[in-house]
Amino acid sequence: MSLKPRILGILSAILLLAALGAMAQTANSIFVARAQKAFELAQKNQLSATNFTVAASELARASFTLADLATNETQRAEVARCGITICRQWLARESNSAPGHYYLAMNLGKLAQAEAPSIAAYRLVHEMENDFLVAAKLDVRFDYAGPARTLGELYFQAPGWPFSVGSKSKAREWLERAVALAPEYPGNQLNLAEAQLKWRQPAEFETTMKNLDARWAAAQTNYTGAAREADWLEWNARRAALKADYQKLYGGKP
Q1: What's this model's pTM, rounded to 2 decimal places?
Q2: CA–CA distance from 216 to each of 41, 142, 185, 210 (Å)?
């Protein structure tokens, strides 16, 4: 491949990333407002709900979403603690609830993020790992293989022993399992591709990206609505970044 097409390809990817970044800044305030409204409604519904499980699930999910979008760590911690509290109440009633353990771990992760770096955050990461493992044992397919997906990301992103739970072998195992269980979900393929690129596995990366691209149009049809707008903004940005990074490292398109 000549140098000029390669440079043009990289420039195109950079321009796309810049455009997506501008869109993200504009959209983030909208997503935060939506998440705040959903969180407040879930809190209100939980107080008067006749079906505790449904109400707890809605509040736990809304807590995580708002904590994830929080603009400061104080708010992130406060909202995450709300999610943790409702999940513990939920699991006190239904100890074998995969969603209960899953959302508990998700909110523990947001609290750990807010409190890092600290001994408390370190302990929360271990607790989060345990609840994700329980959720995977109870129903690994929940939320498009969510327990497998999040375990893979935890092992991929966290520092390794003795500082935390990070592990390349465990990350690969769970990321690949998530893709095998729910290949149609863009987040699963993107997570695996990001790990493969970081691990300098171009052949494996190319295969994952081809699988992702083959399913992209169908995913755009299947995952729609206001609740998915933030996901697509993130997925598009990550996909573009992966292709740009691959071009920088290896040239050409994956």
Answers
A1: 0.88
A2: 33, 21, 9, 10
Question: What's the domain count of the chain?
Answer: 1
Half-sphere exposure of 89 (CA within 13 A, CB side): 16
Question: In this model, does residue 11 exceed pLDDT 90?
Answer: no
pLDDT tens sequence across 58-95:
999 999 999 999 989 999 999 999 999 999 999 999 99
CATH number of 186's domain: 1.25.40.10
Beta bridge partners of 160: 166
In the Cβ-directed half-sphere of 40, how many Cα atoms lie within 13 Å?
6
Rounded CA gap, 97 and 86, in Å?
A: 13
The token pair at 202 is: 């171009």
How far apart are alpha carbons 231 and 239 in whole angstroms?
Answer: 12
For the chain, the residue count is: 254
Of 230, 181, 208, residue with least CA distance to 68: 230
